[in-house]
Amino acid sequence: MRLTHLMMASLAIGFTTSLQAADFTFKYAHSQTDDAPRSESMRYFKEALEERSDGRIAVELYFNGTLGKEEDVLQQVQMGLIQGYRGGLFAQANPAYLIYTMPFLFTTPEQAIDVMEGELGQAINEGAHANQLHIPVTGVAGGMRQLTNNVRAVNQVDDLRGLKIRTPPLAPTLLAFEALGASPQQVPYTETYMAMRTGVVDGQENPPSNIADMKFHEAQEYMSLLNWQIHPDPFFISAQWYDQLPEDLQSIVDDVAQETMTRSNEIWLASEANYLDTLGEHMSINDIADEHRQGFVDAVVPVWEHFVERGDFSQEQLEQVLTLTDQAEVLE
């Protein structure tokens, strides 16, 4: 009996020691479910960071919004109460992140990723430090956003006129659909399905993964592959926490974060293709001809200029992106 007690005591001491072995704790939260691509990539982050730091950093993951709404979590990251977060509200980190959301600025997610991983993307990331955030890398939050509706297939700008489209309350999105002649409607995301069923709205816009997850295809007849917008996915890290790390751990955190985002992009974009196949079984899907896409671009150029004038990003930055996406002639 005494031997058993000694063994149990020894195990307890060893367990306590393992818990105390970490010099730093990285508490991370987001609002997506356990099965979301973002969650899958963050499980890799935890495993890789704990291993490469030799246990000096312990990672705690909190999904499903368990630590609060996105706005509350981001504020806690800025205060150093939580160390990491991925999700919306990227403009609060740096308004320049809105450049990624400009309508019809990119035609593929890969174009956006190239910009995010280049000098311009890094400069935008670094600008977040002024808001108490260290952002080592930015990826894409799903694939290109597409349009669904119950009235008609959208092949050119005129097809959008008068359609009541549910949109998130984001300035670039609202201004874009107004510029295209549609009527953007504010409906809570969780109420969108019923709003389409009852005719409160004609349609909505989202990446294929969201459309499938929310079963919007059950309430819609047409899906038009506008490839009209993409959302960035910055990896928010508390600057207060990061700045106090030794240099070797800072490098490890940055490296693992970058690898994590690469995995996240791959997982997310692969799943988008699968979702699109599934949606094609329930809705009529159409592509936009190249000659008609230019009409959409021309209609939203004033939206780009609005955010330049507002100071969210510069004319030079906009021109950099257009050059990188082979659209430099648009502003000529």
UniProtKB/TrEMBL annotation:
Domain of life: Bacteria
GO biological process, one term: transmembrane transport
Compartmental location: Cell envelope
Keyword annotations: Signal, Transport
Gene Ontology CC, one term: outer membrane-bounded periplasmic space
CDD domains: PBP2_TRAP_Siap_TeaA_like (cd13603)
Signal sequence range: 1-21
InterPro entries registered for this protein in UniProt: DctP_fam, TRAP_DctP, TRAP_DctP_sf
Family of this protein: Belongs to the bacterial solute-binding protein 7 family.
Protein name: TRAP-type C4-dicarboxylate transport system, periplasmic component
Species annotation: Halomonas citrativorans
